[in-house]
Specification:
8-stranded parallel barrel; TIM Barrel; 10 helices; 2 domains; 8-stranded antiparallel beta sheet
Length: 404
């Protein structure tokens, strides 16, 4: 039985900390160049060195993205990119371009290479050939079914890892290769700058009646004909394992640290639950409910069970958001929990405290104290220090959240 890897995203150091605190086996992240997420802060060299060092101290791997389709003028900068990855000690580089694959092999012969979902791998012949070219892992296109994945697994080397996206945003285009954003607002999705025009509302206009907008269907606010639901496979860990998936990839390098913490934790607990009794896997409701406590669109299973019939959401492009993170635990001492505020809340509020690999605990915060120990009625200043008494102790980085 292959050991499933929980692979979490990190758009900056805070999100990286959330991923490794909440149970990731590996983290993927990007730098300022060559990555498919331009909007997050990403990592400079010193931050990369710190992140890899901390991850390795905990037995966690770090994969560096270089999964854009670079143009000619970017190629001269790639050698330094690779050499710094080697110096930092990253465990693998994720590439989408065959030219970059050849350059990683040239500049860093011992570096593990993962082939990005941007490459669009949908069959065993392509998977075999990439393995023969030096790839250790392939990240499959999101458009594959479980049966297709099983066939790829059966017809490729057992030394080839198979990674699949199991949670997060889906793209209306094939494997993320989209030009809509570049056409409309000159932001290239294939260079990490997607403006997500697939989430916008659209009307139909007839050329001889300018200014008269006709809804594509009955909603007067327009239609979201390109807007896909989010993927969620947390209830099907057993099926993913059975078809030979090696790594469960969570989308979201542009998502918040709270999102990374909660979703990573949920998949960590789901995988651990699976290994308790693989033949009789049944996900506890409270673990499943965790993925509904982050900002998300309506969920679907993507293409894993065949061509999806319910994967688009036409009502709006907004997120469902039922909880806010209100604080993060800094330390616990002598029956007191010391925290940093993230969103305003009040003494007497009921909150949930989510520690790594534990069921969330519901607590009423009857008493709050500021950093001087004085009683306060509300924690209403951004990043303010405060504390509350508790017989329970929680590790540093524990999330405190409140229903909205």
């Amino acid at each position: 039985m292959n050991k499933l890897e929980v692979l979490a995203p990190a758009g900056d150091e805070e999100r990286f900390g959330a991923a490794i605190n909440y149970g990731a086996d590996a983290v993927y992240l990007g730098r300022k160049q060559f990555g498919m997420r331009a909007s997050p802060m990403n990592f400079d060299f010193d931050q990369l060195v710190r992140a890899v060092g901390e991850a390795h101290r905990r037995g966690i791997k770090v994969y560096l993205t270089c999964n854009t389709l670079p143009r000619n003028n970017e190629i001269p900068f790639f050698e330094k990119y690779v050499s710094e990855a080697v110096e930092a000690g990253v465990d693998a580089m994720i590439v989408a371009d065959i030219g970059l694959l050849s350059l990683v092999k040239k500049y860093a012969p011992d570096m593990e290479i993962h082939i990005s979902t941007q490459t669009g791998i949908v069959n065993y012949v392509t998977a075999r050939e990439l393995y023969n070219m030096g790839a250790k892992r392939i990240v499959l296109a999101r458009e594959l079914s479980l049966d297709e994945i099983a066939e790829i697994r059966a017809k490729t080397s057992p030394d080839l890892d198979i990674e699949a996206f199991v949670h997060g945003a889906m793209c209306v285009s094939f494997s993320g290769r989209c030009l809509l954003s570049q056409y409309l607002v000159n932001r290239d999705a294939n260079r990490g700058e997607c403006a997500q025009p697939c989430r916008w509302g659209y009307h139909l206009m007839e050329e001889k009646r300018p200014g008269e907008f006709f809804p594509v269907f009955e909603d007067e606010h327009g239609t979201y004909i390109l807007n896909s639901k989010d993927m969620c496979m947390i209830e099907h860990i057993d099926k993913l394992a059975q078809v030979g998936v090696t790594s469960l990839k969570i989308e979201g390098r542009a998502k918040s640290a709270y999102y990374v913490a909660v979703v990573t934790n949920a998949y960590r607990m789901a995988v651990d639950e699976y290994y308790k009794d693989p033949d009789n896997f049944a996900l506890p409701d409270w673990i499943r409910d965790e993925v509904y406590k982050v900002s998300h669109r309506k969920y679907c299973n993507g293409f894993f069970f065949g061509v999806p019939e319910e994967s688009q959401y036409y009502e709006n492009s907004g997120y469902i958001r039922n909880y806010d993170v209100v604080a993060v635990v800094e330390k616990c001492e002598n029956g007191t929990v010391y925290c940093t505020q993230r969103n305003r809340f009040f003494a007497g509020d009921e909150v949930e405290i989510l520690a790594p690999s534990q069921k969330p605990v519901t607590v009423v915060l009857d008493k709050l104290f500021d950093e001087n120990g004085d009683t306060i009625e509300t924690a209403n200043h951004a990043m303010m220090k405060f504390s509350f008494p508790s017989e329970m102790e929680f590790p540093t980085g524990t999330v405190i959240r409140k229903a909205t």
